[in-house]
Automatic annotation (TrEMBL), chain A:
It holds the Pfam family FMN_red. Residues 4-146 form the NADPH-dependent FMN reductase-like domain. PANTHER family: FMN REDUCTASE (NADPH) (PTHR43408). One of its GO terms (molecular function) is oxidoreductase activity. InterPro entries: CE1759_FMN_reduct, Flavoprotein-like_sf, FMN_Rdtase-like_dom, NAD(P)H-dep_FMN_reductase. This is NADPH-dependent FMN reductase. It comes from the Bacteria. It comes from Nocardioides agri. Gene3D superfamilies: 3.40.50.360. Keywords: Flavoprotein, FMN, Oxidoreductase. Signal peptide: none annotated.
Automatic annotation (TrEMBL), chain B:
Residues 1-294 form the Luciferase-like domain. Keywords: Monooxygenase, Oxidoreductase. One of its GO terms (molecular function) is oxidoreductase activity, acting on paired donors, with incorporation or reduction of molecular oxygen. GO terms for cellular component: cytosol. Residues 337-358 are annotated as: Disordered. This is LLM class flavin-dependent oxidoreductase. SUPFAM superfamilies: Bacterial luciferase-like. The keyword rRNA-binding does not apply.
Length: 205, 381
């Protein structure tokens, strides 16, 4: 079954960030057959994220969320706009994610804010972050200001973005695609690189 | 089964008084802690190596040699020796010298270090950490096992016709452990050579330790050094104990809450649950420690961190007295159910025996010309 993980960084309850995340999720699910959705609400993990910064390891719930993201076939991420960018909580989650976890993973970007003037946050802040993380970012990012929740325009953008994500999830398969993931610590623990190869790399650079 | 302590040599303020010891006090305290470790019957004292404040752990070889002169039995070790930024030529000389001075009471644990700027200070690049650890150690082994070495690598000047002196005591190099928290390559390296593998264990969930030790054991067997349960494993550990467990919690909490590593993060309760840290009665420390075997198997060396987070020397010495009191029970408990094929940690004596006896390994050379003539005269001749 296809797995979709939804990471949302809204702080209030109810939250417009979660609302946008839900709409993006529903539209993606509609476009795909047989998809399993996992929600990761960063508010619930806020303490564990800070602890991870300080201790270097993830407590159980955070570890489970990290695993879900790393194993996902597609990811929806939505952050509120704080001080003209993604929130610190949102960034922290991706700061402590293991390098390579999102390599080649289709990601749909979303952001919410109180005013439409922040709409380019998706392009100027979120997109470079996920390019750095080697994710395959959906062309349409969805920004929703408070006003958008009263209009009909948001629907069209949500549908288009979700359709693009679904298409990527349908076409990009981890196993047979040209996109390869970096080897992780878990990969090494399961199937270690033989020492002769490590020696060869050390001497050749 | 060996028991001991390891120190990172941090100079940390006591959060209950606000007082920070001087470097001199901390250096002298380290020596006192080490001699106390021998007094209570521990087997190993290991010091870290750092080259920046707030640590006094630079020049670990001077510290170990000095402690060696003040002790009779305890094994001197490192936690860790920076195999990445230290020239293996110097490591070979320094630790062979300590072997001679202490009649073989020394072994080493290799590590990469965790402070980025240390690498450039020593002309290295942290991105090459694993490669440095692999190449430098490969050279170190040859310097100890071969009298004359010709060598060329990426990370230091080539060597032609080089003899490292003094030669290892009795023709046997010090035993080497490799320490790593989360780098499978280092467990692979330890397994490849049949060396020991040490997991820091403290500050980390048991799951990390278990995975790394399991990998090391699997590969130790793969490379033909013995069975899975015969690999040489060491673990760290951390405790604070008082006769009454609530006293231990109350006294340690301000140190925990402000500790350099985990302070201002998770609660003491969460952290003791997630990691091997045990704060409580001697009986609780005893039981927790004996439980480590449940996820790593029977192992060879247990080192505790006791002098950290700004604990005053007096408290550290009291902790060691309490450790001394449960030490017989720890030894007895670890011996229970231990299969006969599980070896002890190698010592100088056991390595000499395995090599078929002691050999004088001195490389005798022609008399030098340094005292009789200058290089200029030699060039003219």
């Amino acid at each position: 079954m296809t797995s979709l993980v939804v990471v949302s960084a809204g702080l209030s309850n109810p939250s417009s960030t979660r609302l946008l995340a839900d709409r993006l999720t529903a539209a993606t699910v509609e476009a795909l057959e047989d998809v399993e959705v996992t929600h990761v609400q960063l508010r619930d993990l806020a303490h564990q994220l800070t602890d991870h910064l300080l201790t270097g390891f993830a407590a159980p719930e955070l570890a489970a969320a990290q695993r879900a993201v790393a194993e996902a076939d597609g990811v929806v991420v939505v952050t509120p706009v704080f001080s003209a960018s993604y929130s610190g909580l949102f960034k922290t989650f991706f700061d402590v994610l293991e390098p390579g976890a999102l390599d080649g993973t289709p990601v749909l970007l979303g952001a919410t804010g109180g005013t439409p003037r922040h709409s380019l946050v998706v392009e100027h802040a979120l997109r470079p972050l996920f390019a750095y993380l080697h994710a395959i970012v959906v062309p349409t990012g969805v920004y929703a200001a408070t006003d958008d929740f009263a209009g009909t325009d948001l629907d069209a953008r949500v549908t288009r973005a979700a359709g693009e994500l679904a298409a990527l999830m349908g076409k990009v398969s981890r196993v047979d695609s040209a996109v390869s993931k970096r080897r992780t610590v878990d990969d090494e623990l399961t199937a270690p690189t033989p020492f002769e190869e490590l020696l060869r790399r050390a001497s050749q650079g | 089964m060996q028991f001991g302590i390891f120190t990172v040599g941090d100079v940390t303020a006591d959060p209950t008084t606000g007082r920070t010891p001087t470097e001199h006090e901390r250096i002298k305290a380290t020596v006192e802690i080490a001699t106390k470790a021998e007094e209570i019957g521990l087997d190993v004292f290991a010091t870290g190596e750092h080259h920046n404040p707030p640590f006094i752990a630079s020049n670990p070889t001077a510290t170990l040699a000095y402690i060696g002169a003040k002790t009779e039995n305890i094994i001197l070790s490192t936690a860790t020796t920076l195999i990445t930024t230290t020239d293996p030529v110097l490591i070979a000389e320094d630790y062979a010298k300590i072997q001679h001075l202490t009649d073989g009471r020394v072994d080493l644990m290799m590590g990469r270090g965790n402070t980025g700027p240390v690498y450039p200070w020593f002309g290295k690049d942290i991105r090459e950490g694993i490669n440095l650890a692999i190449e430098n150690y490969a050279l170190l082994r040859r310097l100890w096992s071969e009298d004359v070495v010709n060598w060329e690598g990426r990370f230091r000047t080539p060597l032609q016709g080089y003899t490292s002196t003094p030669r290892p005591l009795d023709g046997v190099a010090p035993f080497v452990w490799h320490g790593s928290i989360r780098s499978p390559e280092i467990a692979e390296q330890a397994a490849y050579y049949g060396d020991g593998f040490f997991h820091n264990h403290i500050f980390w969930p048991a799951g990390h330790t278990q995975q790394m030790v399991d990998l090391y054991r699997r590969r130790f067997e793969h490379y033909g050094h013995g069975a899975y349960d015969e690999a040489i494993v060491g673990l760290g550990g951390q405790f604070f104990m008082r006769k009454n467990s609530q006293d231990a919690v109350d006294e340690f909490r301000p140190y925990f809450d402000n500790a350099p590593v985990y302070g201002h993060g998770p609660s003491l309760e969460d952290f003791t649950e997630a990691t091997p840290l045990t704060v409580g009665s001697p009986q609780q420390v005893l039981e927790r420690t004996l439980g480590f075997r449940d996820y790593v198997g029977h192992y060879q060396r247990q080192l505790f961190l006791v002098d950290h987070a700004g604990l005053p020397l007096k408290t550290v010495l009291e902790q060691l007295d309490l450790l001394g009191e449960i030490l017989p029970e720890l030894r007895k408990g670890m011996a229970e159910g231990r299969p006969a094929n599980v070896p002890d940690a190698p010592t100088h004596a056991s390595l000499v025996a395995a090599a078929g006896g002691a050999k004088d390994s001195t490389v005798y050379a022609e008399a030098d010309d340094v005292t009789g003539s200058s290089d200029r005269e030699e060039a003219r001749a």
